[in-house]
Fold these 2 entries.
Entry 1:
Amino acid sequence: MDHSNNLQSPNPAPTSSGDMGEIRFRRLFETAKDGIVVVDVDSGIVQDVNPRFGTLTGYAREELEGKSIDEVGRLLDSPQIAAVITSTRQSDIVRHDELAVKRKDQRLAHVDIVANSYTVGPQPVVQLNVRDVSPRREAARALRESEERFRLFVESVSDYAMFQIDRAGRILTWNAGAERLLGWAEAEAVGKDVSMLFVPEDVIRGEPEREIETARRTGRAEDERWHKRKDGSRFFASGVLTQLRDEEANLLGFAKIMRDITARKEQEDQLRRSVEEKSTLVREIHHRVKNNLQVIVSLLSLQSNYTDDPKTLAAFEETQGRVQAIARIHERLYASDDLAEVEFGSYLANLTEELVALHAAADRVSCQINVEDLVLNIEQAIPLGLIANELILNSLKHGLGDGTGTLTVLLSYVPGSYDADAGQTADDGWAQVSVRDTGPGLPTGFDPFRTSSLGFRLITLLARQLTGRLQIGEGPGTVITVGFPLRVGAGERSPG
Amino acid sequence: MSRRVLIVEDEQIVAADLESKLTRMGYSVVGTAASGEEAIRLAGEEKPEIVVMDIQLQGAMKGTEAAEQIQRDLGAKILLVTAFAGVFARDPKFRRLPWKCISKPFSAVQLRSALDEMARDG
């Protein structure tokens, strides 16, 4: 810092002006922020010392005035001060920056000194203006230390590659992590274009330039990509390129921090492959289940070719229908995202329409379907699908009597706990399926638990499997409702 | 004269069931193929009007590829029988094709109504 203009030079005027000038000079001299020493050139004797010089050096004015400048130089351990008269003979102004002087208490102080000579009346004098620069030196030292610490920190980080590039993409700095990760030594990397770290296909696509442009435009550019080492091998890195700007917002360049995440990426890739394989496997299994169910249906169908007995034919047909109801659940599982749950509402609507189309004469049965979206796992979906199949078939084949009327199918979700006769509760709420027809209704005294009909036996068995409850509702017509607690999560098996 | 049908299905029991059902419905089954390649050869020889075809077959060729070729070469109508008709129906590539599709396992009624629909569509 150049501050020579600020160092005060007392105006030589006092010698030739009146008392006022003298007083003004004295005031300046006494209150100056810089130390001032006036030395008689001929004798080398210190004539005047201001208070600031005293506080700077620790010596009282009386200890310095009247001494030779040589002696003062010795006291302060400063040959430059001792030689000041000789120096000013050679040059009008002599200056010494950051000169070390020893204070009276033996501590070192650092000062800038400007010495110039002039005359007081006939008498030539040298005036030394002395400024304490210790605070400035201390600040500069702290800054240097801080920079050094930061440099050491960056250089010693070995897990992260850290380097800077200029605006054109040339490498400016290179830490130990960069050398370890990328293989080039600092001397090899500095000055090279940053594109040497990119894989050739990214260089062709202009990725290095794009990254710099993004960081320039938005402040930073984050990326995860393959990079190239000195030996040509590749690693997958996560990196951030950040722009560096000075206080006036001028772009200085960019800093890049990069980390090798190849191991993490490989783990993720393997996990993804594993999930894909499992999902493919589960789909394949659903596919095979459906194909095998088709084989079973075909076997039943072929077997039924060998009988003419209407009751036997009906039994074959009903069994085929039941297998189909199971197969439709698998089809929905196959199409679902997690391969484990089905949206039962649309299944039930679809099943109802299909059964009405197959078993009711056209236009003789009207159908009311009112279903909520309800996701069920396979453990509950298959028994409920079979129950619905039986209830709907019962209504279509027996309940509606002459085969005309209205079939109503409801599916609803009931939040809260479920109080079945068995005292079951369910935090996940419960569901109920209800099938109603407008036929003559069940015979008086009908007991679903004692009937010989396979359909009703299946319904009671499967309701028990769902830990549910079977209710015969109030007519007119037949109303049968099955309610059961919901089990969230696949693979949970209902007791019983 | 009964309409000529070619069955393409590698599961022999299902193929036999299809043949039995189709015969009872009054169709004339001209052959049964287990692979796409065999289906194309048989179709060339027998010139069926309808091909009832599974998608997953023996051999490299998918049922859909064989069906496309047979339809292009002979103008036969295609009824796909697949485990996952719903998935097939959502595929935009196949939604454009004038094919019918039923899901396995199918009943005689479902098979009949699909064939009737094809006959009505011309």
Entry 2:
Amino acid sequence: MADSLIEMTAAETARKVNARERSAREIVDATFEHVRRIDGEVGAFLTLTEEIARTQADRVDARIAAGERLPLAGVALAVKDNMCLRGTQTTAGSKILEGWNAPYTATAVQRIIDAGAIPIGKTNLDEFAMGSSCENSALGVTRNPYDAQRVPGGSSGGSAAAVASYESMIGLGSDTGGSIREPAAFCNIIGFKPTYGRVSRYGLIAFASSLDQIGPLARTVEDAALAYDAIAGHDPMDATSVDVPHESTATNLGESLKGLRVGVVKEYRAKSLGSAIDDVYAKAYADLEKLGAEIVEIGLPTADYGIATYYLIAPAECSSNLARFDGVRYGLRIEGNDMTETYDRTRAAGFGPEVKRRILIGTHALSSGYYDAYYLKAQKARTKIAADFENAFGACDVIAAPAAAAPAFRLGAKSDPYSMYLMDYYTIPVSLAGLPSISVPCGWAQPEDGDAEMPLGLQLTAPLFGERLLLGAAHAYEIATKHSKKHSPRIGSGVVGRALGVS
Amino acid sequence: MSVMKSAPATGGPTQSVGAVWEAVIGLECHVELKTQSKMFCGCKNEFGGEPNTKVCPVCLGLPGALPVPNKTAIELTIKAGLAFGSEIPRFSKFDRKNYFYPDMPKDYQISQYDMPLCKGGVVEFWLEDGSRGQCRLTRIHLEEDTGKSTHAGSSDGRLSGSTYSLVDFNRAGVPLMECVSEPDIRTAEEAVAYLETLKRTFVQLGVSDVKMEEGSLRCDANVSIRPAGSATLGTKTEIKNMNSFKSVRLAIESEITRQIELLESGGRIVQETRGWDEGAGITHAQRSKEEAHDYRYFPDPDLVPLEFEAAWIDELRSNLPAPPFKRYVRYVDEYELPTKSAAQLVENPVWEVLLDGAVRRGVKPKSYANLLLGDVAKKQNEEGLSEPVATFTIPASSEFVKLIEQGTITSKAAKEIFPRIWSGEITDPAEFVKREGLAQSSDRDEIKKFVDEVVTANADAVAEIRKGKDRALQFLLGQVMKASRGKANPALVNELLREAIGGG
């Protein structure tokens, strides 16, 4: 009984709760029962917000009873723990914020709650969203629901794992260089990063302000569209949030790709990710064509500079954004003999190695005498990369590419930070250009280091503010291919453990 | 070691034994803007209050909070620049100035680096002796104020020796305008005159309250000296912690003297920051250039670049009232008022309309200025007003002053009539004076009658006068004026009184 409730999509759930066939309260109860059963192994959550969830569920049921209809009525929601939810611990996966209770709620979180979603808990992430595997979290290990020995991706790995293992129906993540799309690909779900500025960043703990964007993780494109519709739109509390009218995407989901010009990137095709993976993407492009799309080859000559560019801009911004974690007002404080020593000790103990590395890189890149050579140059490269995309969109409507450079790897396999950075090779240029982009499951392949097939994601990218077109295309591809249904999660018990025969 | 003369009170090079030195001074002023809310959040912008009560996630720099710029603060800063003829570039932006300090919530300050709101401009000022000077502005930019630290556990409230510090963030995020001058100032007196122009202008434009004691104006001075006539600049020091115009003057004078003494004794000036110690009357070294921060400025990615429409800037410019210095110049050059009166008149911008209106009606500027600086100022003061009441009109007050000018009424009668001009009770003073028979009288017989009455009734006073005590004469004069309801021509009264008493 419980299993069927948690397996429902968000769309289905909202329909049933709005029709009063199901109550938000029963969904919450079933969800927590499931979470308690399996999250010890998955490790998606850092904090469970059971009290808030039940209060919100009752409020939703009351609103429905009063005749309201809510687009996400009773939908179980996982919130990445770098977003503030009033009264809950909000850590950004860091020791420096462990135990800090947010006194206010992020705009996106408030909007999705107002739309009827029920926050189940706060999910694990790479510390301050810096990483691609969740392994940089200082507060917990999250495992891939399809192979507990593998990472869920990152940095929104907790939300991705929660959605994939049915611990929630939708999740909120944040994407700076791929942090929604890569874990979505690793966990066989949908991950959608909207255009920069579409969703308010107010209440999202900043990593790199000019790149950070909140977006949904979901098991279907329709669910992602519903969640996106709930959170998108101008926010007077965020000066970078754009005042462009938001049109519903959930009501515009197509079933055909007829007439759509899909660009495949010449430079990417020249690179092999291994024959099994290459085959999956070749098949994906062929499937797009079968659905009526016209495949055109496009060039992104500067995309190769994406990682170098990103690893100057993002650390520069983070070196400044993370300065406030100094032990003075909140979070960890380790006393020294004077203020400077207190800063030093607090930050030395509070930040993990990857965060420190990026603060150092960024501080250096902004230093007097180096600014022009590093930060300014990177900004110029960013402009060129964005121009490349704009140019490419002259010949196509969406661009198709891999969402990650490999399927989910084993925990601990990437000890060298640079090899981790390369995971985001395909997502980073898109982030630098601020474009809307989605990862949709597109097939399975045997990883180099294992026998069991792991999921792969197809990244589709549209021009600025092209969310309706993008989600429409992703939906048509999804319903025609249904790659996500080939394997079930192999972790835990109950529905998620079925494939392993665990009960 | 030579014996030093202190820096001169007025302009010009400083003469000391063996050399003539010239000081070169530039000022950096931080001015808190008079807005309803803070620079990047909705918190109230008010001085004081219980510590940490005017705060929110944004001005406390809580994780995830974002700044949204205050449009009024941007407008006030542009107005300030326009008042001094600054160029207002069409594009501007905010940058982050990165450094760690406990009273700075984000450990960076949102400021402006290379694209300030205002560029250039000239601050003109006058000195007490009536001479005029000017100082070019480098720029005016907008930033956010920090919180305020209180160091406890030490005897003198200083950081050094304190055992703990408290931070009040009520001030954090208050809009702060920084005005940077070129090194055009040569004396401490000019520095103060420059500051007075800034203060007067900002107060009158409604840009700031400019209360130094509340910290809404804070000033740092860059001071160097060089041989008079030299074109190169000497090594400068930056003086901080000056809390009043008086301390600005004293600190600069003291620093000039220190530098001269140092150079004349064979020493070298070190580029450093020096704090002004008001009690000791000296500056002391705080931080050398080597310890200077690398602020790692970069454009704030939380804020979008600013672009202004030329029409909006033009509108601000055309709606700007005449800045005080312009009025001062007009009063002195055009109205030929004494510099002291002009300086006083300038303090009240509303008076300009009254004065100009009266002059258009043929009143002498000086006569009307006397009314404003006398009776009007007194009334405003008594009633706690910043400007005359609405019932005080240009036509009535102009006619009133004309009656005084022409000698139609005595100053005594004027004093009696004024309150009814103020209250609007009298709209036609000439008619009123005629109706009430208050016109000055030079009728010898009529006045003689009053004089005789007064002399008879005040035999004691008369006796005093005869003993040579002239003060009693003033008393009798007053009595006669009173008896004549202020109408009597005072000169004639004086003459007739002396005649009646005799021997005077």
